[in-house]
Amino acid sequence: MSGLESNNTSSHHLREAVEPDPFARSIQPHGVLLVLSDSELVVLQVSANIQEYFGVLPQDLLGQPLTRLLDEAAIALIQQSIKRLKHINFNGFNHLNLCISWHQQVFNGMLHRSSDTSIILELEPASVQAETRSLHPYTYVRGAIARLRQIPDLTEFLQLAAIEVRHITGFDRVMVYQFDAQGAGEVVAEAKHGHLSPYLGLHYPATDIPEPVRELYRRGMVRYIPHLKAQSVELIPNKNPTTEQPIDLSLSLLRSVDTCCVEYHHNMEVAALFVIALTQGETLWGLISCHHQTPKTISYEARESCELLAQLVASELANKVNTEELSYLTKLRSLQSEFVQSISQVDDLRQALVHPAPRLLDLVGAQGAAICLDNEITLVGTTPSLEEVRILIEWAEALPTLQSPLFYTDSLPKLYPEAEAFKDSASGLLLLQISKVRRYTILWFRPEVLKTVTWAGDPHSSLHVTTDGSMTLGPRKSFQQWQQIVQSTSLPWKSSELENALDLRSAIVGIVLKQADELTRMNQELERTIQELDSFAYAASHDLKEPLRGIHNFSNLLLKGYSDVLDETGRSRLQTLVRLTRRMESLIDALLRFSRLGQTELHLHSVDLNQSLHQVLEDFPVSRPELRAAIRIPRPLPKASCDPVLIQEVMTNLISNAIKYNDKPEPWIEIGYIDGKDEWTSRQTTEAPSMHSQSYPVDYSTTFYVRDNGIGIRERHFNSIFRLFKRLHEQNLYGGGTGAGLTIAKKIIERHGGQIWVESSYGEGSTFYFTLQ
Predict the structure, then answer these.
(1) Helix (H) or strand (E) holding 380
(2) Among 111, 165, 182, 330, which is most buried by a count of CB atoms within 10 Å?
(3) pTM exceeding the 0.70 threshold for the entire prediction
(4) CA 386 remoteness from chain centre
(5) Angle subtended by helix axes 495-561 and 568-597, to nearest 10
(6) Per residue in 701-735, pLDDT tens?
(7) Which ranges of 363-437 would DSSP assign to H, the alpha helix?
(8) Cα gap 391→254, rounded to integer Å
(9) Which residues contact 507 (CB under 8 A, 6 or more apart)?
C-alpha cells in the first residue's frame, strides 16, 4: 500500500478524473428533487421526472410557490423543518426527514440546505420496498444491537455487524472496510452469498476511494444506488436562476452516479450499491459497503435501520479489542509499571534505561534503541552505527512536522533515503523527545520485514498515462488477487506501543522534576550551610588573629628582653615560635580572604583586560622584585564582563605561580586567549601528545590562559592543587606560600559562572585555562 503513496496525487489531471462533481446537474431516477428559495419556498429548479411522480410538468412548477404542488399540512411541516435547519451545521449530512402525502401516495422526504443557502427537498415514494421480511427493520435492529453489544472481540464484532446488515438489506455481499493512514483500505469483515468469491483480507489502493470521496464519507455521507446503470434525470433548468451557477448536490442522497464509479462497479459485477460511513469523531475509520449483482431497492426504513446499526458499530469500535491485542496490551502495561518503578528509584537515569537491555526494547516491541541524554548516545540491541544515529537525530529534529514529542514511521527509508543503508536494523523508527532543552531523546528501531500484500487486482492498473504525458485515473477492470512484496518496511507500530512510549515520557518527566525539586532543596540547604560556614570562618579567623598577635608580640619581647638570660636552645625555640606565628597569620589572612569571597557582591561591567593585565605586570617589580620572567602576549586580550579587582587577583595568582614554580634558566610566561570551537579543535591537533588535560569548556566560549615553561604538574594532582592550603612541595621550596592562591582563583572564577582547569606536562610546563560567563 505504501508503494502507491506518490501515485495518489501524481498530477492535477489525475485529481480531475476522480473527484466527484458536487455540481452534478442530474439525479438518480428513484426519486424527485426540488430546489427552493429559502424565504418564499419558490421552486427554482426541479428534476425532469416530476411528472412521473406528481403528474405536473416541470415548466408549470418553476417560479411557483411550493403550494402549487403540496397541501398546507405538508408546507407547514417543511417550514417547521427549515427553522430547525438554522441550528444545524450546513457542512454536515444533517438531513431532516419528512413524511408527505400526495393524492394518497406517501413520500419519504429529505430536506437540507445547499451551500448557496437554497433549500433542497428530495422526495422518494414510500411504496418502494424490498422483499417482505418477517420482522419490521426497526424491530430487527433492536435485537441486532443487543447481540452486537455482547461481543467483546473486535473481529467477531465486525463480522456479526456485516451479517446483521446483510440480513436487513438482503444484499449479496456486505463488507466492513477499514482505511489506513494513507487512505488505502482492507476488507476486515464480510458476509456474502455462498457462490461469490471472498474479498475478506484483500487490500484496495487509496485511488479506489479518492480523498474527495473519503472526505464526503467522513462528513457522514450515505450512498444508496439501487440501479447503477439507471438513466440519470436532469435538473430543469441546469443552473440555479438566482446564482446563475449549478446547484451544489454534494449532500444530496439522490445525486447521480459518476461514470467512472459505474464502470468500476460494473467491472466488479455489481449492479446495486449501499454504503454507510463509520466515523470516530472527526476521523473516517471505514465503511460498511453492500453490493448486489442485480438492481435492488431497499425500503427507507431498512436504510435508516442500517444507519442506526452503523452508528452503534462506530461508537463501539473504541471499546472492542482483538483478544490477542488485549493480551499484548496487558503485557505492555505490566512492563511499563515495573519499568517506571525501577527507574524512579535510581540516580543514574541512563543506566536505569539501558540495564537490563531487553526491558527498554520490550516496552514498545523494538529490536534496538538509542538513548541520547545531553548529547551522549548509548546504543542497545540491534541499531545503526553511533554516527548514523547521531545524524538521524539531527535530521529528525529538523523536521517541520516534529511538533509533538512522538514521531514514528514503519518505512524510514521512504522518508529518509540515507536509512536504506541500515534498513536491516532500522526500517521502522519510533522517536520519543523527552526534552528539547536538555536534548533527552529515545529512539527505538525495528528491522526490515518483507511483507506480502494481497490486493484486489493490480493497484497500479487504474493509473493511465495519456499522450501528453499527464496521468489520469480510470476504473480498474480486474479484481483478481494480485500480490506485492513490500520492502524497506518494518512491522507497524501499534497504538498501544505508542501510548506506552508517551506514558514513559510522562513518567521520566515526573521523575526528573521530582529529582530537580530534591536537588533544588539540597542546593538551597547547601547554599545556606556554605553561607554559615563562610560566616563562621570569617568570625573564627578574625577572632584568632588577636591572641595570635599576642603570642607573636610576647615572643619578640622575650627575645629582646631576655636574650642574654636564655641559652641558644631557648632563643632558637622562641625564633621558631615567631616564625610559626607569622605562618599562622598568613594562613588566617588567606582563610579570611577566601571566606569574604563567598559574601562579597560582584561588581560586573565591561572590562578591558589588557589594562588589567598591564596593571598586574606593572606591580610585580615593586611588590615581588625577586620574580623575573619574559612575558609573551600573542595578541591583545578582548573585553569581558567581570569584576576588575577580582580578575586582577586571578591574574596575579596565576602569573606569580608561573614565575615561582620555574627552574629554567630563561623562564617565560604567555598570556592569551582561545576563541570558539574551531580554534580549540585546531589547537588540540597541534598540542604535544604528552600534554594531559583535566577537562574542556562545555560551550567553547572565549577561554583565557596563562602558560609557562616551568616545572609542570603530575596528572594525579590536577584536582588537588585547587584545594585550600594544598601545597605539592615543602614549605621552604619555591618561595613558600600558603597554598591558597589557586583555591581563591577558582572561587573567583566560579563566582563569575566560569571554569578553571590545568593542562600540564611534568618537567616541561603548565597551562592554566579559565572562562568567564
Answers:
(1) strand 376-381
(2) 165
(3) no
(4) 22
(5) 150
(6) 688 999 999 888 888 778 777 776 555 545 555 54
(7) 386-397, 412-415, 423-426
(8) 56
(9) 340, 343, 344
